[in-house]
Amino acid sequence: MAEVIAQEKQGGKQKKKLIRVDMTPMVDLGFLLITFFMFTTNFTKPNVMDLGLPAKSPTPTTNVVDVKNQVTFILGKDNRVFYHQQDKQDLNTGNLKETDFSGVKISKIISEAYQNAPAKENFTIIIEPTDKANYKNFVDILDNIAISKKERYGVTDIKPWEKKVYEELVK
Question: Model-level pTM?
Answer without folding.
Answer: 0.63
